[in-house]
Amino acid sequence: MPLRKKLDKNGVQKTDKAGKLIWRADYYEGGKRKRPEIKGSSEYALAVYAELLKLHSPAPNNLTKVKTLIPQFLSWYAGEQTSKKTLSDMINTFNSQVLPFFGDYAICQVDVDLVEKFKEKRTADPHQRNASKGTVSKRTVNKELSYFSSFLNYCEEKKIQRFDFRIKRHRKLKTPLPQPFSMAEIDLLLKKTSPIYRLPFLLMCDMGLRKSEALELRTEAVQGDVIYVMGKGSKERVLSITSSRLKRELEVAIKKHPTGYLTLNPSTDKPYTTMRKELDRVLKAVNIDLKKKWCFGYKQTPSASFITAQFWNQCN
After folding, report:
1. At what angle do helices 138-157 and 66-80 cross, to 10 degrees?
2. Do 32 and 81 have their domain in common?
3. Residue 247 belongs to domain spanning
4. Do 142 and 187 belong together in one domain?
5. Local confidence pLDDT in tens for the 316 residues of the chain
6. 2, 108, 154, 285: least CB-packed within 10 angstroms?
7. What is the CA radius of gyration of the chain?
8. Domain ends where: 56, 81, 100?
9. Pairing state of beta strands 306-309 and 37-39?
10. What is the DSSP secondary structure assignment for residue 273, as one 8-state letter?
């Protein structure tokens, strides 16, 4: 769209109080039409208009296929992202869901209709949920859409392709309140837990650590009666060791591992990444309802604060 003169009712170009000529720019920004005024000479107005077009006009259609761009996006994201778990989950999601659906499309073909088809294909009927057929919960689809949205934002930032839509996610549904394990059930679980998992188990139930924090705790983080935890968002917090049984397990682990990680997989000599199979086994061994697994609370003493650890959810 050309730069136009702003004319009065007589067809004469308007000027401001200082006598500067008034021009009308015309372009689109984020799918919305913009028509700002530019004041000055024709050369100045053309220069400003050229910059506006460079910044806001849609890029020419890019025929590069999505599957060609995703590896460079993941490489870029790996440098930006601090969470190994998030990066790993994103890579798995792209490989298993995004690439099979979007991979052979050109990046310029990605539009709101295509994204809606993906949502429709992936979203499960609550009464016909079947992961083997490729349908999952809306929560999972929202996560996949969030990852794909990050990819589209990357394409815009790198000026690969500009998009005139934003991905709409499924509306969040209220989840029922979790039913915590009783103290008796916690004791049963602890008795049946394998020795290698006892320390992370106690770190979660007695101190409220996240799964990754418990499994990746290092000897250097334990200082006397406190533990220094580097948690979500690279935020450090200091926690008091709250129980004698936890102290005993820490002493045993520190004696075994004077430096480095306190819990190691003997097969790989690296920290565990999950406790799901172990918790499955223990729950079945003590005959506790598997549905009662989302999280549990543990009250250390009548004066202690009530600690809620998202136990099962974090063991996945």
Report:
1. 90
2. no
3. 183-315
4. no
5. 568 888 888 889 999 999 999 999 887 676 577 889 999 998 898 888 888 877 765 555 678 899 999 998 998 888 876 677 788 889 999 999 999 999 999 998 999 999 999 988 887 655 555 555 556 788 888 999 999 999 999 998 888 888 888 888 877 767 666 666 777 878 888 888 999 999 998 888 888 888 888 999 999 999 999 999 887 767 889 998 878 999 999 999 999 999 999 999 989 889 988 888 888 888 888 887 655 444 443 333 222 333 333 444 444 4
6. 2
7. 28
8. 56
9. unpaired
10. S
